Amino acid sequence: MTLEKPVAEPTPTAQVAGDEDDEEAKAGVDIWKYILGFTEMAVVKCAIDLGIADAIESHPDPSISLSQLSSKLGCCPSSLRRILRFLVHRKIFRHLADTNTYSQTPLSRLLLARGEKSMAALILLETTPVMLAPWLKLSSHVSATAATAPPPFMVAHGDDIWVYSEANPGHSRLIDEAMACDARVAVPALAEDCPEVFEGVLTMVDVGGGNGTTLRLLRKAFPWIRGINFDLPHVVSVALPPCEGVEHAGGDMFEGVPKADAAFLKAAFYCYKIVPR
To answer: O-methyltransferase C-terminal domain: from which residue to which, for each copy (predicted)?
Structure first.
């Protein structure tokens, strides 16, 4: 009988060296996530710009072929196929192998231009050069020695976001549309899950209410509430037309807020400063 030669156990030093090699190899792969990390954002924006989700949604059948989709969008089929392959891999759209067609997913429906729960406007805002530039100035803010160093947006554009938006109506409109799409998702959920919060509230001021979408949605759920949509003058000047039970008021929340039974604050970073007002 032949005895097998025992396998030598790796020495602790060899084991450590092997672990370090594995970590370095993994690091060499992971670094590409950061080198090309912008691609997901860019491709999703491309899908919104092209209207891929809208084209599939309006198609008479639940799924659509590449040739049909490229014809609807007026796109080069080979380029569109690459975009779709990326989006399918990220599970944004679905590829049906048996019919070689593409269909929607719950995630892709959030990219619809006019979908009830669309988040497309928020993506389009955050992918503008205006909103991306401050991120590239983050190091200058962190490395500043003074506690009162200007925020990255001001470093990039010379003004804070509200002054900049007043001087650039197109960007102001993007902000309003983005905040409105967020409200269409958040407000119905709030009204359904926390209706007791609004009991006894007869008047409500929405601080930083943008174009008035939030109060319109709240009044659908709680029609007895009279709403005051309060925002900067240049914002309310182009807000949605006033509707029954909702009025617009322009002003500066740091100087004063219209009186009401309750104040609604959504994504207001300085709310702790204005509550006493």
So the answer is: 138-269
Q: Which residue, among 249, 173, 270, has the nearest Cα to 204 in the 3D structure? A: 249
Domains assigned to the chain? 38-109 (1.10.10.10)
pTM as predicted: 0.83
Task: Quote the CA–CA distance of 111 and 176 in Å, as a whole number.
Answer: 17
Whose tokens are 């004063």? That residue is 256
Residue the block writes with tokens 């926390």: 194
Note the helical H segments in the chain.
12-35, 39-50, 52-58, 66-73, 77-89, 120-126, 129-132, 138-142, 152-157, 161-167, 169-193, 213-221, 233-236, 271-274
**Residues β-bridged to residue 31:** none
User: Quick one: which H or E segment has residue 65?
Assistant: strand 63-65
The answer, yes or no, to whether residue 9 has pLDDT greater than 80, is no
Who's near 247: CB < 8 A, 6+ residues apart?
A: 226, 227, 228, 229
pLDDT in tens, 162-183: 999 999 999 999 999 999 999 9
Is the four-CA dihedral 191, 192, 196, 200 of positive or negative sign?
positive
